[in-house]
Automatic annotation (TrEMBL):
Entry's transmembrane regions: 6-24, 53-72, 78-98, 119-136, 156-173, 185-203, 252-274, 286-307, 412-440, 461-478, 484-509, 516-534, 554-578
GO terms, molecular function: symporter activity
Protein's name in the database: Cation acetate symporter
UniProt-listed InterPro entries: Na/Glc_symporter_sf, Na/solute_symporter, Na/solute_symporter_CS, Na/solute_symporter_VC_2705, Sodium:Solute_Symporter
Predominant place of localization: membrane
Record lineage: Bacteria, Pseudomonadati, Pseudomonadota, Betaproteobacteria, Burkholderiales
Organism of provenance: Neopusillimonas maritima
Length: 608
């Protein structure tokens, strides 16, 4: 069967399932729209949280960044450590206490804990900035996936994805999104692991990718390990060793910390713990979420390394059994005529992959043309008349999607990956849009502008605000400030610098008052956002950055992706100093904090 038809079948069937679930479980009240009636089983909530969490950044982009990182794959392991470590913080320090509070949203907690409508409004602003930044990465992932597998432009793919999200998120609310995300988790985890099983078996003789990652390289008889072979191949071509140590330990530490505390401060993740029946279920949900997330995250390093090796041996066929440059590079004739290389032509059509025969020899030389002039690869390039790296563009975000094609796997596996990638992007996009919608309708309109709004009016406002959020996210997704995982990392930095400190101090320090919380969040937001905008462009508008986004321009080598940890520290310090210099919170607020710390008595739940 034609690959395009297979793609349509797999994607179409899964979309029909999502929309069907959304209509079956559509929200009829604000409680169902915001918190699914607080009756979701913790195992199902853990699965839905996993889908909500494992976004386009996890499914599409993370392994691609690990595979193609100029500094090697080890440095990018911070994504794995930070994102999973954050769930431990969330399970231990936040989830049960926020569920005990018993409300729908993060701004609602902040508003009541800090007895201030201003604090609530500021939390809404922080939430919207974080969620919009995060959703840009998801929309980019949707566009990239559709552009390849439905053979349309990236922009058209983005519009199609936005329409699908609109159908099941606007009508279903949290109730519809939760059960849709359960189905999406099943699709995405199968789609991620099945190709990894095949590829691991081909490259290492071991069907389990986690073991293949540390196993032997099968084409050479298993005499050397997979990672040793990969290091040999990439260093021969002038690239940094795949397992090379990080050149900036401070930046890596701050980046990991930023991802960890950013995870624990992400509004769309936190609101998932308002959907379970009891306080104990909130902690249980976080534990189950870690289990479901680990199924993908322990496979990702293997996927990244195997994708890089498969790409390199495709460009230099001799590298499979010998050194890369002992044989000729991939020829243009093979690209045009061999069916197993048709993936190159189809990805070139998307604009995310580009090759150029600069020296006119009919072959595509892939190497690091920025290596030192006296390096072996540059001397060889001069001797052989190479004019520079001829694999002129390969987008990080295509590596996981193209991996099955590069490895020559069956068409149904390729179609499965397409369905999984879309499930990952759409599930997180829906959660983020719900967080934005609830912040506007529940916290801003009902909480501040029109407290006497009816439940029906609030539900309508929620759906209208979500519609506008989808339109804005789609527009921003047309010109994203980076790869999907990079854009998501920026959102984590903003969450780390604003929401996380306010929640932590609000739960564990009775003395923090509204003045301290507001000052901390505001300074944390401004400090982090300005640092990011200086390098990434103001409000992510291309060409408006003040400094080039390169390591040489970073303050103390701290990248915009890592600044969230510093912003969190600034938030903590400012909140402490301001709170210490102003009046203590009222007695009833201090008693509220005491009651939150005892994880009992969350009240009855609505089962469905």
């Amino acid at each position: 069967m034609d690959q395009f038809v297979l793609n349509l079948i797999f994607v179409g069937v899964t979309f029909a399932i999502y929309i069907g679930i959304a209509f079956w479980s559509r929200a009829a009240s604000t409680s169902e729209f915001y918190a699914a009636g607080q009756g979701v089983h913790p195992v199902l909530n853990g699965m839905a949280t996993g889908a909500d969490w494992m976004s386009a950044a996890s499914f599409i982009s993370m392994a691609g960044i690990i595979a193609l990182a100029p500094t090697g794959g080890y440095t990018q392991s911070a994504f794995l450590m930070g994102w999973t470590g954050g769930y431990v913080l969330l399970a231990l320090l936040l989830a049960p206490y926020l569920r005990k509070f018993g409300k729908f949203t993060v701004p609602e907690f902040i508003g009541e804990r800090f007895y201030s409508n201003g604090a609530r409004v500021l939390a809404v602003i922080c939430l919207i900035v974080i969620s919009i930044t995060y959703v840009i990465g998801q929309m980019r992932g949707v566009g990239v996936t559709f552009s390849r597998f439905l053979e349309v432009s990236t922009d058209v793919g983005l519009y199609i994805g936005a329409a699908i999200v609109f159908i099941y998120a606007v009508f279903g609310g949290m109730k519809g999104i939760t059960y849709t995300q359960v189905a999406q988790y099943v699709v995405l985890i199968i789609a991620y692991t099945v190709p990894a099983l095949f590829i691991s078996l081909n490259l290492t003789g071991t069907v389990i990718p986690q073991l293949g990652f540390i196993g032997g390289y099968a084409p050479s008889g298993g005499d050397i390990s997979l990672l040793t072979k990969l290091n040999e191949v990439v260093t021969e071509l002038g690239f940094t060793a795949y397992t090379a140590d990080t050149p900036n330990r401070l930046n890596m530490f701050l980046f990991t910390l930023s991802l960890m505390i950013g995870t624990a401060g992400l509004p769309h993740v936190i609101i998932r713990f308002f959907t379970v029946p009891k306080v104990a279920d909130a902690r249980s949900s976080a534990g189950w979420a870690l289990v479901f997330i680990a199924l993908l995250y322990t496979v990702a390093p293997a996927v990244g390394s195997m994708a890089r090796l498969n790409l390199t041996t495709t460009m230099w066929p001799a590298a499979i059994t010998s050194t890369a440059t002992s044989g000729p590079a991939l020829s243009l004739e093979d690209i045009q005529t061999k069916p197993e290389l048709s993936w190159i032509r189809t990805w070139e059509a998307t604009g995310l992959l580009d090759m150029e025969d600069k020296n006119g020899d009919g072959r595509i030389q892939y190497y690091n043309d920025k290596a030192p002039a006296d390096s072996p690869i540059m001397q060889m390039a001069q001797e052989r008349g190479w004019k520079g790296n001829e694999l002129v563009k390969i987008d990080n975000d295509i590596m996981v999607l193209a991996n099955p094609e590069i490895a020559g796997l069956p068409g149904w596996v390729i179609a499965l990956v397409a369905a999984g990638a879309l499930a990952a992007a759409l599930s997180t996009a829906a959660g983020l849009l719900l967080a934005i919608s609830s912040a506007i309708s529940h916290d801003l309109i009902k909480g501040s502008i029109k407290p006497d709004i009816t439940e029906k009016g609030e539900l309508t406002a929620a759906r209208i605000s979500m519609t506008f959020a989808i339109i804005l996210a789609t527009w921003l997704g047309l010109n994203p400030p980076g790869f999907a995982a990079q854009v998501v990392a920026l959102a984590f930095g903003l969450a780390a610098a604003t929401i996380f400190p306010a929640l932590m101090m609000g739960i564990f320090w009775k003395r923090i008052n509204k003045q301290g919380a507001i000052a901390g969040m505001l300074i944390g937001l401004l400090f982090t956002a300005i640092y990011i905008f200086v390098y990434k462009g103001w409000f992510f508008i291309p060409g408006t950055n003040n400094l080039p986004d390169t390591a040489a321009n970073y303050v103390f080598g701290i990248s915009p992706l890592s600044i969230g940890a510093v912003g969190a520290l600034v938030n903590f310090v400012v909140a402490y100093l301001v709170s210490s210099a102003t009046a203590a919170p009222p007695q009833h607020v201090q008693e509220l904090v005491e009651s939150i710390r005892v994880p009992k008595g969350a009240g009855a739940a609505t089962h469905h």
